[in-house]
Amino acid sequence: MTLTTIYWFLAGGVALLTLGGEAVVRGGVMLIRNLGVPPLIVGFFIISLGSSSPNLAVSLEAALVGAPDIAIGTVIGANIVNLLLILGLGSLISPMASAPKVVLRDGGAMLIAAGVLAWLAHRGAIDREAGLLLLAGFILYMAVALATDWRRHAEHSVSCAMSETRSDEPSAAGGFFTVVIGIICLVLGSHFLVGGALALGSELHLSQVLLGLTVVALGACLPVMAVTAIAAIRGHTQLAIGHLIGTSVFNVFGVLGVAAIIHPLTISPLFAAVDVFVLLGTAVLLMPLLAMSWRLSRPKGALLVLSYACYVVFVGWRQGLLTPAMIGLG
Predict the structure, then answer these.
(1) Which of 15, 139, 210, 211 has its CA 20 to 30 A from that of 316?
(2) What is the DSSP string of 163-211?
(3) Residue 107: which domain range?
(4) Cα separation of 88 and 305, whole Å?
(5) CATH number, domain at 157?
(6) Is 325 a member of any domain?
(7) 248-286: per-residue pLDDT in tens?
(8) Which pLDDT score is estimated for 156?
(9) Domain tally for the chain?
(10) 324 is a domain residue
(11) pTM for this structure?
């Protein structure tokens, strides 16, 4: 397989994941609205399963083809992309309000999720029992979020507001057809993206750890990045922080939980030594940044983007792709 073909595989995978994620969200919203489900639950569907469906599809595909480093790396890398790069770029475009409830409740859940992942990385594996534990953690998070958001107006509830942004007519047949199309696109997209990444690694002698943390994670996050950028350009930033934090919580508890139940995952010592602590440190860094004036300003966004750039440089250096002289240190 030539490099050109590999790049087409990667691009096709990203395009199909983007289309599939959006189709699953729209079709799912139509289906559950047709059942008379409250907007709050509709919003949580969009935040969790809908937004994380590309990550879920990629991690499942990677686990099933025997590439656990890509499965784990995609989740860790996607969360770092969400919390550093996407939030940073969004706040550079337009400063973002960070509601105290989102910071304390969802930010706290994000901290716990990162801590649990660090503990699992120390164990070296996520077996089926640990996968069930992760899913239980997500169910608990959802229960707390539903209890604290119930009967709140949309302006005080990210989930209600997310639901109100979807104006699809609740057609059961149309919703079912759209979900089926979305699932097919997700399956094909994850197959192309993971297959392309493995071929790229073989061709350029890149590790699965590097590919999962960077190429695959960025590809899976592009839909969320595009939505956040458009919202920031239009000045609709009040949902972005809660949406990205909620998605990051689901990535750890939901995506890894489901993937480990279907196929237990081993965790590379590289992840255990550094990357899970980068994710944990990112969560710790975000809490005071969001709490200061309850606003993510442009200078704070610049700090987040710079932090992500430093992390990518470090990952490249660790892989041997960069030398001190190449990055101006020698």
Answers:
(1) 15
(2) HHT------HHHHHHHHHHHHHHHHHHHHHHHHHHHHHHHHHT--HHHH
(3) 3-318
(4) 5
(5) 1.20.1420.30
(6) no
(7) 999 999 999 999 999 999 999 989 889 999 999 999 999
(8) 47
(9) 1
(10) no
(11) 0.87
